[in-house]
Amino acid sequence: MFSVVMAEAGSSDLWTWWTQFVSGLLSWETLQYVVAFLSIFGFIMTSAVILILLERKVMGWMQDRLGPIHTGPWGLLQTVADVGKLLLKEDIHVVKSDKLMFLLAPSVFLAPVMASWAVIPFSPYIRLPFTALATGIVFYVAMSSIDVVGVIMAGWSSNNKYSLIGGLRSAAQMISYELPLVLSLVSVVMLTSVLAKDGIGTVSLWDIQQYQDTWTKTGNGVLDFLFQGFTPWSWFFLVQPLMLMIYYICGLAETNRSPFDLPEAESELVAGYVTEYSGMRWALFYLGEYGNMTIVSAIASYLFLGGFSGPGVGFLTGLGNIWWGLLGNILALVYFVLKIYLLCTVFIWVRTTLPRLRADQLMQFAWLILMPVTLCNIVLSGGIYLICNALGLSNLIYLIVLGVINWLSIGLFIWIVRRATVATTRRAQAPAIRAQRRASSVPALQLRDGVPSRVSELPAGSSVAGGGSH
Amino acid sequence: MATDQEMKIHPEGGVIEESKSQEMLLNMGPQHPSTHGVLRLMLKLEGETVLDCTPVIGYLHRGIEKILENRTVMAGIRYMDNSDYLSPMLNETAYVGAVEQLMGIEPPRRAQYIRLITNELQRIASHLVALGTYGMDLGAFTPILWTFRDREGILDLFEALGGSRFNVNYMRVGGVLHDTPSGWLTQCEKFLDELEKNTKELDALLTGNEIFMARTQGVGYIDPQQAMAYGLTGPMLRASGVNWDLRVNRPYMAYREIPVNPQVRQEGDCFARYYVRLNEIFESIRLCREAIDKMPGGPISTRTPIALRPPRGETYFAVESSKGELGVYFISDGSEYPWRAKLRGPSFINLQILPELLRGHKMSDTIAILGSLDIVLGEVDR
After folding, report:
1. Chains A and B: how many Cβ contacts under 8 Å?
2. When comparing pLDDT for A2 and A224, which is higher?
3. Domain total for chain B?
4. Cα–Cα distances in Å, from A32 out to A121, A130, A205, A423?
């Protein structure tokens, strides 16, 4: 490309091209992107360190133990020390691995995770320019499906059977759970298109968050301070709670967390696709995984829980004073991070509680339960809107009706899951049940002749030291 | 089999090859997080389906039976601890029981009752490890930590009793080593109350869980005839609907006075085996309480000569260990040393059914089934 430009343009043209290129490189926009990249990377690093410590502590409390306590006060420096150790560890390569893929896989796994942060506004001021932001959900979904490439690369190139099985499992799992994940997000996009005045919805997270703010200024200072930009009664999780649940379940599967952690199932596959990795490459995988956890939580908090909104944010940034605005932004950041960590704690809670599913049960759950439920929800949301529209009812009544139906369908969903579990186990138990029926038709099993089955039937003064003597 | 080469003629001419997957040989173990020690399974896989399995054992062989021949009878008791290292007390009871049976000694009643309490506590400890690691095998992280916390209490009790937590070396021919320290029985009762509460909590965490049930119910089914044909004993046999418990059917020592309710399930799958073990914990708690209530006074040991020479002859004595029938076949030539002491380890015999069970199951079920057998490699390899 460059040579073509050189050949066609004269030396002066080349010079203008060069100056334009350099000025473009040194422009304000490029600097913004560089700063954004660095801060997102820093945020992922720090939040991974904090999350690992949080996970170990919370799991410790749930399991009646202390968690890390020795390194630093209250064990606070434990993960920092771990990161230091991982950085200093030898980077071991498998001799018979596919070298290039083996070395690239961790980066391919981590890069999309960082890229998907581009769509997240952190606070009213801190966000990337709107080009990346506008494609919101679509961009996130696209990035999260690239993840699987890194996993397969790692699984294939390690030249290890456990890694291979882990990689293939995760490929199947991530692709299957991508679909209900997208469909559950579609329901929110549908809500925005209902609420939009021109009837065109949005996929931008920033705009979706704006739809969840229904406050109109009252003039009462206290109320305005608390609720401007922060209206929990109009958050989308009240209208679509089931979709939040399904999105979260799919998020668990996307991030390979328990109970969907088959790709790295410790008890079966040693460590799955990360078996052969060590040192910093191993750490990159874990960084990616925890980054994934935070991004799933961040998206959930934007779509269903009002994003960074909280008491004081909207009021302070709306004052027009830069210092109050700054304070409002810091508050927004705090609320946002708190919401993320709250949702991450649910991940940890689930991990301590549930056993792991089997691969085929995992697939069944995605295709036979989650997919139909999300599709039904989309049809239902659309259908109810059409009915409400035909009857000339307002949007508010539509949202209330949809919300009530959705809350009720949570119960239905749980019932379906239970029913499905029971049905599969009944089917699996068929041989056992058959055998029971066979056994009940023949007389009870005679073990050995003349053996008293109860103590009371023992003859008095029986053998001295007992035992099955000959 | 899908792997067979099959050729088909395409309707429009030409030959198409059936898509076939390649068989994969996977060596699971001996270094693997969930083979419960150093068991090696050579799995022949097609995708994730297990076609065949060959267990390879012997990585933990220490020649315990040969060591027993080279130690005096009293010195041999200590080596029995290392056989099934999760239930040393039960191993010791089997060994000293065989010697007592050969010599015609009956230990005093108090000794018998202490043996019952320690045996039942040991059974609880072993089952706790089995349940905890089973949860771990299925991916539940919490049960193992809860059960090991509870097991710690049992080890503390043993420490107070025999001075050692794990390899207690507490049984003696004709009785036990020490009487219970003062306050030990009260401590024991207090521990049992707490244990009952904790075990109910474990029950609430695992038993009703849909994922747990989906993973275990109907997996690894053994029918009663098959179970008896393979010589299975213990919880594995009782989970298949065969009511056979040596404490009931061949009562020995204090079990002649304290009746046991054997725990039997009809399903014969992994869940039944899990549930039998869980219920046996509650049953053992009940037995311990009853034994503490009925605890007689008197000596804890009969007088036995210092140089113990069992008479010439042979005998077989079996106890209901936590894993099944733990038998000792004891041959004496009249000297201080046993001429032969053969152990019938329940783990070894229960392991034999594994290839039969695994065929056709998924690879994840391999772990679920292996965990439900509750083997201890120390006893398999001896």
Report:
1. 187
2. A224
3. 2
4. 14, 12, 20, 55
DSSP state letters, B221-238: ---HHHHHHTT--THHHH
Please tell me which of the candidates B140, B267, B327 has its beta carbon nearest to residue A355. Answer: B140
Q: Residues 6 or more apart from B61 whose CB is under 8 A from it?
A: B381, B382
Q: Are B65 and B341 in contact (CB under 8 A)?
A: yes
Select from B19, B40, B55 the last residue of a domain.
B55
pLDDT at B9: 52
Nearest CA in chain B to A435: B223
CB contact under 8 A, A467 and B138: no
pLDDT of the residue at A439: 52
Give me the DSSP letters along B302-325: ----SS--PPSEEEEEEEE-SSSE
Tokens describing residue A422? 């029971």
In a shared domain, residues B38 and B21 = yes
The confidence score (pLDDT) of residue B195 equals: 92
Identify the pLDDT of residue A446.
43
Confidence of residue A425 (pLDDT cuts 50, 70, 90): low
pLDDT above 90 covers a percentage of chain A that reads: 0
The minimal CB distance from B217 to the residues A353, A428, A468 is found for A428
Say whether B256 and A361 touch across the interface (CB within 8 A): no
Calculate mean pLDDT across residues A109-127: 80
Domain ranges within chain A, ordered by starting residue: 94-371
* A352 contacts B250? CB cut-off 8 A: no
B15 and B127, same structural domain?
Answer: no
Mean pLDDT taken over chain B: 85
The reported pLDDT for the residue numbered A428 is: 57
Substitution target in A56, A269, A425, A437 with the highest count of B β-carbons within 10 Å is A425
Question: Domain span at residue B30?
Answer: 7-55
Is residue B312 domain-resident? Answer: yes
Q: Is the peptide bond before B355 cis (omega within 30 degrees of 0)?
A: no
Structure confidence at residue A302 (pLDDT): 86
Are B36 and B138 found together in one domain? Answer: no
Q: What is the mean pLDDT of chain A?
A: 78
Of B215, B269, B362, the CB nearest to A355: B215
Q: Which regions of chain B are under pLDDT 70?
A: 1-21
CA distance A40 to A253: 24
φ/ψ (deg, to 5) at B169: 55, 55
Residues contacting residue B346 through CB under 8 Å, at least 6 positions apart: B233, B234, B321, B323, B324, B325, B326, B379
Mean pLDDT throughout A15-39?
Answer: 80
What pTM, to 2 d.p., does this model score?
A: 0.80
- State residue A460's pLDDT score: 44
Tell me the chain A residues in contact with residue B145 when contact means C-beta distances shorter than 8 Å: 63-65
Q: Given the structure tokens 């759970």, which residue do they identify?
A: A177
Evaluate whether B253 touches B116 at the Cβ level (below 8 Å).
Answer: yes
Q: Are residues B15 and B150 in the same domain?
A: no
**C-alpha to C-alpha distance for B281 and B287, rounded to whole angstroms:** 10
Looking at residue A135, the DSSP 8-state letter turns out to be T
Whole-number pLDDT of residue A234: 78
Q: Quote the Cα angle for A284-A288-A289, to 5°.
A: 120
pLDDT (mean) for A169-198: 85
Whether the pLDDT of residue A470 is over 50: the answer is: no
How far apart are alpha carbons A449 and A304 in whole angstroms?
A: 70
Q: Is B193 found in the same domain as B96? A: yes
Give contacts of A266 with chain B, Cβ < 8 Å.
Answer: 33-34, 139
